[in-house]
Amino acid sequence: MNVKAFLLACLLPVVAQAQGFAGLGAESEGFAMPAPDPVFDFPADHGAHPDYRIEWWYLTANLQDADGRDYGLQWTLFRTALAPGEAAGWTSPQVWFAHAAVTTPERHFATERFARGGIGQAGVQAAPFRAWIDEWALQGPDFDTLTLRASAPDFAYDMALEAQGPLVFHGADGFSVKSAEGQASYYYSQPFYEISGSLDLPEGSVAVRGQAWLDREWSSQPLSRAQSGWDWFSLSFSGGDKLMGFRLRQTDGSFYTSATWIAPDGTTTAYPDGAFSAAPLDEAQVAGRDVPVRWRVQLPARDVDVTVAAMNAQAWMDLAIPYWEGPVEVTGSHDGRGYLEMTGYE
Amino acid sequence: MIRVSLAALLSHWRRNLLQLFALLAGLALATALWSGVQAINGEARASYDAAAATLGEGRYDQLVPRQGDALPVETYVSLRRAGWRVTPIVEGRLGDVRVIGFDPVTAPAGFGGLEATAALAPGDTGAAKGLFGTADTARRLEGLAPVTVTRGVAPGVAVGDIGVVLGLLDRDGLSRLLVLPEQPIGRPPLEKVAPELRLRASQQTADIAQLTDSFHLNLTAFGFLSFAVGLFIVHSTIGLAFEQRRGVVRTMRALGVPLRVVIGVTCAEMLALALLGGALGIVLGYALASVLLPDVAATLRGLYGAQVSGTLALRPEWWLSGMALALIGTAAALSRSLWQIARMPILASARPRAWAMSGAAGLRGQALAALVLLVAAAILGLVAEGLVAGFALLACLLIGAALALPVVLSRVLALIEARSHGPILSWFWADTRQQLSGLSLALMALLLAVSANIGVSTMVSSFRLTFVSFLDQRLAPELYVEVDTAAQGAALDAYLRGQGLEVLPLYSVAEEVAGLPAQVFGVRVGPTYRDSWAFLDAGDAPWDAVAAGEAVVVNEQLARRADLWVGDRVTLAPGVSRPIAGVVGDYGNPRGQVVLSEPFFATLYPEVRPLRFGVRTQDPDALRRAIEAELGVPQSAMTDQAVIKRASLDVFERTFLVTGALNVLTLGVAGFAILMSLLTLADMRVPQLAPVWALGLTRRRLGWLELARAVVLALCVFLCALPLGLALAWVLLSIVNVAAFGWQLPMFLFPVDYARLGLYAALAALVAAAWPAFRLMRTPAGQLLKVFSHER
């Protein structure tokens, strides 16, 4: 039995179940559960919440170089707890892992890291903000001014981020419901980062700039047992509006959807199940499976009817937990760019 | 009709129980030999896989502390934080069990050899409290630590989460860090992050895999040999069984049984017998392996520090392959016999000798094939390098020689026959030659068995001789003392030198030399080195040059791998290189070694102080007591040479015990093949012997002649086996060993051993022929008379 399987089987209860991402619906005994009407405490809540089973700091960015060539970038730090709470040293029940990726129109680079909690190899500190695993780090004096770093055998990046707007809260003031049974998470974002820096790719170093979107989410049982995966969209329209929408796929073939409309000034409107819809238009053969890479996304309440197409259909994250994540282009009623994440395509 | 036909065929066995026994025993023995060797091999290999998974650190570069034996967790974290992808290992002992702790989160895939049970199960603390190991390990750790029994972990080792193991060993520090193969770009150099650590290149610790593999190469070679011997035996057993039943078959055909039915029934019958014989053989092989396996386990444990589970699992690989051997051998023999049955004219006489008298054309084809194979072997012998070529050479040589045997024997016997005088002698040789084809398969089996015996025992004995003289050279000091600190070492050195004794401190450091991992030694050049070290190749006064710091001595492994010989320069540090003054033989050690003088070593590695000392003394016991009294060094820290030598020799004695046991078995099986061939031929030979008897030779005399014939044939085979065995040994020592171990073993000849083997072979033949000869002596005269009265 190799360590990878070993990890999947035991260390990451997230994917412990045979149903893959549906494992997010695993039992959550002993862990704290998200409750409605949250009162966030910043900067403390930018840090880790070890009493909850899973948590992430999820950054995606749409970038361009001086020649107008498009790039996508991802940096995600995950925390998963084998048991609630924190302990010092090797007995810590916290396990960290992180994914980093760069997508070009032709290629997709992805890598991952794993770390034990308790020994300082990985962690998140609220103020000054510092999220790190090995030499990878997202850090700065506060949450609005950050630097970002990751490296792999075949790529690396070094970026600077500056927030141009406020934090936005999804669902009911940051309490984001994920199923009809009531599974939920705390979920807020900083979608207004301007980002610039350099990408080190096999063909050389390239200076890039663009827009980044950071998601913060934590929970103990975010999915219901009857959900097998999700399709998540973060779209930035050229008019300045932004749309976050996701579709949770249920094993009976139905969907649970949710969306947040973000105005340029950061005011949000949350849309309940059914308001947002996303339907695959085209599939591509990716890593031996069919994955939808062109979508029709609609939010009739905002007259949104757009086609969302992957910049690079092969943006497959071939990691311990495999999924699709990459930059997208938006055309139709609104133009823009964004990121798409699709999980649970076995 | 099918049932009647089957009953008719089977009735033959009822009337000839001995033949049935011969058939089943032949099949069973061949299968047993093969499956026994396979079982031992397979079991040992499976244990190695577990060992490789558990102990497979050798594949990775490692970071180890320059001083001391532990590094703090903080160093690990700062390396990770700097971009070094490393994973921590802690190692220690609980009781007599080696305990290894690793971090499953960062360890490379496949590390630890754990099965689905998890070191880190989701639980209240996140880390399970226990270790993982085999049932035996669990028993040995009873009361020390909870152990979850897992098959994938190497014997004698318990693994667990690093946090758990640190707690059990009551330690904070890590033993070492493994450097993962994939590293990010832009990683800073080690000196900047952790200058107190040293990078140990991966190859250096890969010795377990390398050594155990090469030992198993021997066993594998032996396995193939036994497969060949087994095939010969199965083939000859089946062939003879058919020969004896030609009459039955002819009668059945004459009575109107269709050919199709005869063939179908025969196939079914043979399949059943092959399955039965094969199954018996597998049971026998299992018994054989379980008798031998404790030795295999002990051998490997002693030699390489690797452990083999002392338990046997009934692995499908080996029992299936054993069954396949029985079935393939049967099918090969059957196809030929069936073809003959198909072509046999219904009303022709049974001609029971026909098979044994296989045509001259067949012999010519066989001779041609043998020639081609032997020529191929000769060419390979000239150009072969590497393991595959070595084994191809072995195969060509052995099969070629086996095929050539009947041709050679036939020529030799013809020659003797032409020169012999007197009717009885002439008849004897002619009759012997005439019997050759019937016995040839059994004789080939004997040839292979004897030559394997000669080859393997030559190799083992050569190894022993070389190794003993090597031990005398390397373990010259009478007493070894080990101390804990450099200060103790200095005090010991001063004390001993004050006594006027020759002290040999052992300085050593693992280093990369000529791009290869090697061990660099610092020695105090004195009479011991000058007198007892034998060089394979050396310049003038090598030790003077070494003592002056102007040259170094390297071992054969380094010389071969780096292709650096006497006169070539070895770079020891940036800008520091020295010419090689001599190359020494170094057996049983996979690593390269460089020997420097003590002062020169100190300039290169000032931080390394000796903790082991060899002392030359006439009275080791008195010195032991003095050192204990004067310096407080415990007795347990002192070893005398005799003990080390004995331990080292024991290891090698045991190593080849198994090979020896299997050798004897092969010889036994070959002897059995001869017995069965003779027994089954005996009845057919009655018509040939009857006229000789009628001419006045007594049955007693005939019996003695039969015995003499067996011995003569065995001796002839032995004479052929001698050069073949020596060639086999040469290939093992000069080609296979160099490819596997990196050094060539000098080949020694052991004429007395060979003479004894010749005696054994003759003895085996004598024992095999005794019963048939005895039966011949007791053959009723009436039976012989019947030959002349058409009553047979």
Automatic annotation (TrEMBL), chain A:
InterPro entries: AttH-like_dom_sf (IPR023374), AttH_dom (IPR010791). PANTHER family: BLL1000 PROTEIN, HYDROLASE. Keywords: Signal. SUPFAM superfamilies: AttH-like (SSF159245). Residues 54-220 form the AttH domain. It holds the Pfam family Lipocalin_9. The keyword Signal applies. It comes from Pseudoponticoccus marisrubri. This is Iron ABC transporter permease. The keyword ATP-binding does not apply. Residues 1-18 form the signal peptide.
TrEMBL record, chain B:
It is found in: Cell membrane. InterPro entries: ABC3_permease_C, Membrane_comp_ABC_pdt. It is a multi-pass membrane protein. The lineage of its organism: Bacteria, Pseudomonadati, Pseudomonadota, Alphaproteobacteria, Rhodobacterales. Residues 221-344, 663-780 form the ABC3 transporter permease C-terminal domain. PANTHER family: BLL1001 PROTEIN (PTHR30287:SF2), MEMBRANE COMPONENT OF PREDICTED ABC SUPERFAMILY METABOLITE UPTAKE TRANSPORTER (PTHR30287). It holds the Pfam family FtsX. One of its GO terms (cellular component) is plasma membrane. The chain crosses the membrane at residues 219-242, 262-289, 318-339, 360-384, 390-416, 436-456, 656-681, 702-724, 757-774. This is ABC transporter permease. Keywords: Cell membrane, Membrane, Transmembrane, Transmembrane helix.
